[in-house]
Amino acid sequence: MRGRSPWPYLLIAPTVAGGAFLLLYPLLKAAVISFQHFRMGELIRGGAAFAGLENYAELLAGEEFWQVLLRTLAWTAINVVLIVVLATGVALMLPRLRRGLRLALMSALALAWAMPIIAATTVFQWLFQSELGVVNWLLVTLGFDSFQGYTWFANGTATFAVLVVLVVWQSVPFAALTLYAGLTTIPVELFESARIDGGTGRQVFCRVTFPMLRQLFALVAALEVIWVAKCFPQIWVLSQGGPGDATTTLPVYAFKIARVLHRYDLGSAVAMLTVLLLAVALVANLRRMVRS
Amino acid sequence: MKRLALNATAVAVLIVTIFPVYWMFLTAFKPTRDIQSDTPTFWPAHPTLDHFVTAVNAPGFWTYWRNSLLVTAGAVLIALVVALMAAFAVARMRWRGRGAFVVAVFAAQMAPWEALLVPVFIIARDTDLLDSLAMLTGVYFMITLPFTIVTLRGFLAAIPPELEEAAQVDGCSRVVAFRRVVFPLLAPGLMATSLFGFITAWNEFAFVNVLIIKDQDKRTLPVWLSSFRDVFGTDWGATMAAASLFALPVLLLFLFLQRHVGTGMTAGAVKG
Amino acid sequence: MKHRILALVAVLALSACGTPAEEPKASGPAKLTVWIMDGSVTQELLKKFETAYEAAHRGIDLDIQIQAWDGIGERVTAALASTDAPDVIEVGNTQVAQYSASGGVTDLTAKVGELKGADWLPGLAQPGNIDGKQYGIPWYAANRVVVYNKDLFAEAGIKEPPKTRDEWLEITKKLNKDGNQGIYLTGQTWYALAGFIWDEGGDLAVQEGGKWKGALDTPQALAGMDFYKRLQALGKGPKDADEANPPQHEVFAQGKVAQIIAVPGIAARVLEVDAKLKDKMGFFPIPGKTADKPGTVFTGGSDLIIPAASKRQEEAYELVKALAGEQFQTELAKAMSFVPNRTSLAGVLSGEEGTAAMAKGAANGRATPNTPNWAAVEATSVIKQYMTAVLTGADPAAEARKVSESITSTLNSGS
C-alpha cells in the first residue's frame, strides 16, 4: 500500500503516456505557435518565424479580448444558475409524480438529452424564425401581436436569450436525472423525521436534501460550468457570435480568429491565456481536490 | 389543488422538453412541401418515408456507421480501462506525486480542444497518422479520459476498501479481490461514465473533419449528418431523418443503461 | 508453342512498361482523387464523365468524392497542408484567392494558353490569379436572375417583365397583395445587395494605396442598401435570415411567392418540391437603373485547383484540362444551368429561358473584392448582420460605418 511499490506508477502509466502525446504535446505546440508568426501559409508551407510576444501584445492591447472574457463569464453564470435551479426543481418534482407521468417525464428528458446537438440547434433556429417560426406563431395566437414577424436574431439580447434557452434545454436533462438519482439514495426516514419536526418544504430541502447531496450539487455545477463555458457549435450555427459581438464567447472568439481569419498564432495565444485564467480561477477548487 | 398544480407543472415541463424532439421526428416524416408553411401543422397530414430513404441512400452511410461505432466504442472502452487503472491508483494507493496527478487530470477536463485542432493536425501529419481511424480513436479517447477518471475515482472511493481487504484475507489475490468484489459494485459507474464518453465521441465533427482527408471511407456519421446541405440550403427533411437515426444508438444505450446512469453518478459523487 | 511463349513474354514486357517506373508499389491503375462540391454536378453527369475519362486514359482510376459544405474551408486547408492531398479540388471563386496566396496550390501560369485562358470569365479567372500567377482554373459560373411565378404575374395583369428598377418596384407592389408575396427576399441575401451597390457606382471595399477599405458607408453603397430595403418590404422574407435558411425554393414552391432572386439552377429544386410548377416559372435578368442595361450581378462560381501536395501533378493537370475543356463545359452548362468558363462558349445558354436570362445579366457580372482575405469577411457574416440591422430599423449610416470598419480591419489583417 505505501512505500516504494511500482504499482501506482504502472497503473497511471497509460494515462500519462496518452496525456503526454495527445494533450501535453499539442498544448506545447500551441504554446510555441502563440510565439510565432503562424498563419495559413505557415501551416501549409512550414517555416514559421519567431514573433516574440507580438500576438499577446496584440490581444491584450485591444478591448475585445476583455469584453469577450466578461461576456463568457456572464454567459456561463446565467446558464449554470438556470440549469441548476431548473434541474433541482425537476428532480424534486419527479418523486412526487404518479408513476406514469414520472416515467413519461423521464423518457422525455432522456430523449432531449440524446438529441444530437446539431439537430437540436437547427430545430431551435427554426422555431425562432421570424416569419414561419412556431414561437412567433404561438405568441401571436396567444394574443401578443407585437411578435408578428419578430426578428429574434436581429437583436443582441434576444439572440443571447434564445441561445440561453437552447443550452439550458439541452443541459437540464442530465442535471435533473443525476440529481433525481441522488435524491432516491437519501433514506426516506430522514425526510419523515424532518417533517415530523414541523419542517416546511423549504426547510426540509435546506436541512436534509441539500446537505446530503452537497457533493453531487458541486459535481453537477462544476461539470455544467465546464460544458457551458466551452459550448461552441450551438452559438456558431445560430448566430456566428452576432449580431455585432453580442454572443461572441471565448470559444467563438478563438474560432473566428483561428479558423476563419486563419490567424492560428493569435488563436493559440487566446487559448494559452484561457488556460492560464482557468488555472488561476480553479486553484482554490484544485486545492480541495488534492486534500481529499 | 396542490396536486393539480404539481401535475400541471409536470405536463408543462414535459411538453417543453419533448417538443423540439417531436418536431425533429415530425419533420422527418413530413413531405418537403409541408415543411415550410404559414401555419405550423403539428401532425403529419401526409406522412412519408422519403426523407429516410434519402438519408439512408446518401453515399457512405453504412461505412460511416461502421466507422463511428468502431471509433466511438474503441475510444470509450480504452478510456474505461485506462481510467479504471488510474482511478484505482488514486483512490486506493498512497504514492508520491498523487496530488499533482489528480490536479493534472482535473485540469485536463478543461483542455481547450477547439484550439488544439491545428496542433493535433500537425502532429498527425508529421507522424503519418492522417486518414487513420487509430488517430481519431486516440483523440476521442483523450477527450473523454479525464472526465472518466474523475468520475470513476469518486465512485471507487465510495466503495469501502475493507471489502477488498476482507476478500484478500480470505486468500484471494489483490487482482482477484478486485474482480470479484469491487468490479460488480463498480459496474453501474462504469456504464454511466461510458455513456457520457459515447455521446461526446459520437457527436464529434471538428476533428474528423480535418484528420480524415483523402480516405473518404474513414469518415464518421457526423460528416454524413451535415451532408444534406448545399448551395441552395439545407434539406430539412433529410437532415431531421438523419438526425433521428443518428440519435438512435445513444437512445438505445441510454435505455439500456438507464437504471445505472443516475445511481452511478450519484454514488460517484456522494463520497467524491 | 514457341510462339505462345514469345507472345507471353511480349505481353509481360508490355505490361511491365505500362506500370509507371517511378511508382513501384502501384500495382493497379493510378488513382486520382477529385473533390467536387455537393450540388455542383449531378451524379449522372459525373458517372458519365468518369466512365468516358477512364476509357480514354488507360491507367487512371478516378475517385470522385462529393464534399459536404459544412466545414469545407477547414477540410480544404487541411488537405493543402497534408502530405498526400487530393489531386484536384473545386473551390468557390470567393475562396480561391486565399488558398492561392497560401503557397499550397500549384502554379499553372504556363498552361493558361493551352487552356484557352484568353476568354475566361474574369469573375472566375481574377480571383484565381495572385501577383500575375494563375493558380485557380475557372470551372463554371452562375449569376442570379429573378425567378417568377407566371400564374401570379398573369393574375396581376403583368405581361412584360420589368426593365428598370422603378418598374420592378411598381410591379412588385402590385403583386404583393391578397396573401401573396410580391417578392420573397430574405434580409441577408448579400449577393443581391452587392449588385445594387455596384449599380449605384459603389463597391463593397476599395483598395487605396495598398490598403483595403470597407466601402459600405459611401453614399452610393447606402443608396444600394436603401433600394434593397424598399424591395425587401414588398414581401415577407425574414429580415434576420439568408436565402438558404429556410431554403427559398421551398417557400417559392408553396405558390404564393411571385418572385425570388436566385440562380436559374434553382428551378430543378423547386420542381423537386412540387412538380406542378413546371412551365409556371419564368426568368428575367435583375433590372438595372435604366432600361438599356440589366443590373450588375455578382458572378458566383468555382475554380479548380491542384494542391502542391498532390503526388500526381501531371495526371491532375490532364484531368483539369478535361474538366475545363469545351466538351465537358458544354454538358455541364446544359445539365446544371451554369455559365461555362469561357465567354466564347456562352452560345450553349441561348436555348432555355432561365439560362438566357442569366447570360444577359452575366455580361454585367462582377466579383467580390479581389483579396485573399475576402473569404474571411464572408465567413464572419458581418455584411449579413449589417443588412439585418438596417432592415429592422437601425440607422443605416451608423451601421454602415461600423461594418465598413470591421471589413477594413479584416481585409488588412495580413497573411
Describe this structure in words.
The complex is a heterotrimer of chains A (292), B (272) and C (415). Chain A is mostly helical. Chain A has a single domain, classed as Orthogonal Bundle (MetI-like fold), CATH 1.10.3720. Chain A is built from 14 helices and two strands, in the order αβαβαααααααααααα. In chain A, strands 1-2 form a two-stranded antiparallel sheet. In chain A, helix 4 packs across helix 11 and helix 13 packs antiparallel against helix 14. Chain A is globular and about 75 Å long. Helix content of chain B is 76%, strand content 1%. A two-stranded antiparallel ribbon of chain B has the order 1-2. In chain B, strand 1 and strand 2 form a beta hairpin. In chain B, helix 5 packs across helix 7. The longest helix of chain B has 35 residues. Chain B is globular, with a radius of gyration of 23 Å. The two termini of chain B are 40 Å apart. The mean pLDDT of chain B is 86. Chain C has two domains: 200 residues, 3-Layer(aba) Sandwich (D-Maltodextrin-Binding Protein, domain 2); 198 residues, D-Maltodextrin-Binding Protein, domain 2, CATH 3.40.190.10. In chain C, 41% of the residues lie in helices and 16% in strands. Chain C contains 17 helices and 14 strands. In chain C, strands 1, 2, 3, 6, 12, 13 and 14 form a seven-stranded mixed β-sheet that branches. The N and C termini of chain C lie far apart (70 Å). About 6% of the residues of chain C have low confidence. Chain B: Keywords: Cell membrane, Membrane, Transmembrane, Transmembrane helix, Transport. Chain B: One of its GO terms (cellular component) is plasma membrane. Chain B: InterPro entries: BP-dep_ABC_trans_perm (IPR050901), MetI-like (IPR000515), MetI-like_sf (IPR035906).
Quick recap of the structure?
Chain B: Keywords: Cell membrane, Membrane, Transmembrane, Transmembrane helix, Transport. Chain B: This is Sugar ABC transporter permease. Chain B has 272 residues and is mostly helical.
Q: What's the arrangement of secondary structure elements?
A:
The complex is a heterotrimer of chains A (292), B (272) and C (415).
Chain A: H1 7-33, E1 36-37, H2 40-45, E2 49-50, H3 54-61, H4 64-93, H5 99-114, H6 117-127, H7 134-141, H8 156-184, H9 188-196, H10 201-212, H11 214-230, H12 233-239, H13 250-260, H14 264-291
Antiparallel strand pairs in A: 1-2
Helix pairs in contact in A: 1-14, 3-14, 4-8, 4-11, 5-8, 6-12, 8-11, 8-12, 9-10, 13-14
Chain B: H1 2-29, H2 32-35, H3 50-57, H4 61-92, H5 98-108, H6 113-126, H7 133-157, H8 161-169, H9 174-203, H10 206-211, H11 221-225, E1 229-230, E2 233-234, H12 236-270
Antiparallel strand pairs in B: 1-2
Chain C: H1 2-18, E1 30-37, H2 43-56, E2 60-67, H3 72-81, E3 88-92, H4 96-101, H5 122-125, E4 129-130, E5 133-134, E6 137-143, E7 145-149, H6 150-155, H7 165-175, H8 190-199, E8 205-208, E9 211-214, H9 219-232, H10 248-252, E10 259-262, H11 266-273, E11 281-285, E12 297-305, H12 313-324, H13 326-336, E13 339-340, H14 353-362, E14 365-366, H15 374-379, H16 382-391, H17 396-411
Parallel strand pairs in C: 1-2, 1-3, 12-14
Antiparallel strand pairs in C: 3-12, 4-5, 6-12, 6-13, 7-10, 7-11, 8-9
